[in-house]
Design a protein that fits this description.
With 223 residues, the protein is an alpha/beta fold. It has one domain: Rossmann fold (3-Layer(aba) Sandwich), CATH 3.40.50.300. The chain has 9 helices and 7 strands, in the order βαβαααβαβαββααβα. The strands form 3 sheets. The chain has a 3-stranded parallel β-sheet. The longest helix has 16 residues. It starts with a strand and ends in a 9-residue tail after the last helix. The relative contact order is 0.18. The chain binds adenosine-5'-diphosphate. The site of adenosine-5'-diphosphate (ADP) has 20 residues, from helix 2 and helix 3.
Length: 223
Amino acid sequence: MLFGAPGSGKGTTGKMLTKLTGWPHLATGDLLREQIARKTPLGLEMQSILASGQLAPDDLVSRMVWDRLGWPDCENGFLLDGFPRTIPQAEGLAEWFGGRQFRPVLIHLWVEYNEILRRLTGRRTCPVCGAIYHVESNPSKVPGVCENDGAELTVRADDREEVVMQRLQTYQRQTWPVAETLRKHGILVEAIDCGEMDPESVADRIVWRLDRISGSIAKKTKN
Ligand code: ADP
């Protein structure tokens, strides 16, 4: 489970970890935005909630996650990004793990507050492939255009400055206590101070930590 404030790098790190481990990267924010893009009934309901920086209802997000965790690609491990985000979600997930052969670890990505603000307000994303850029620290080769598919980069509706503050408050109030809840359920919590590290180093550090906990988890062969 990748845990941390908005802008702590869960999405970018998650994409890299998928390459290193072979585990699918399940980001609830991406799953919800996909529903919005496809204009499904769920997506239409969620659009204004996400745009305002509030959280989607627990039962709805949890159902979406239980369903996804049942897919065969999750059998040997998975990366959860953005879930659990509230105490009820954490309680539900601890119960889900209860009857299963997994060794869950919460990876807490620590980033200093001003760095978070800088990252979120300069973030640009590709609406087609989900690639993440930053106007200063990771610009695309052609400004405003995705390097993977040529789509025009966008500012996520919830990366506007006034919404960013709301998301950080939501994080402090509702998400911060999640680490403690999971710890009480016996789930290992590993903190990584990653404000000064580039995303590759953060991903390498996580694999190294997980290797120490569970033996070698990195993909042995790459096709
Ligand atoms: P960030 O971590 O940068 O805020 P995400 O892409 O993880 O970005 O989430 C974007 C939005 O999607 C959140 O602000 C929230 O509205 C919704 N969301 C994502 N995950 C959850 C969750 N587990 N529970 C409720 N809402 C969620």
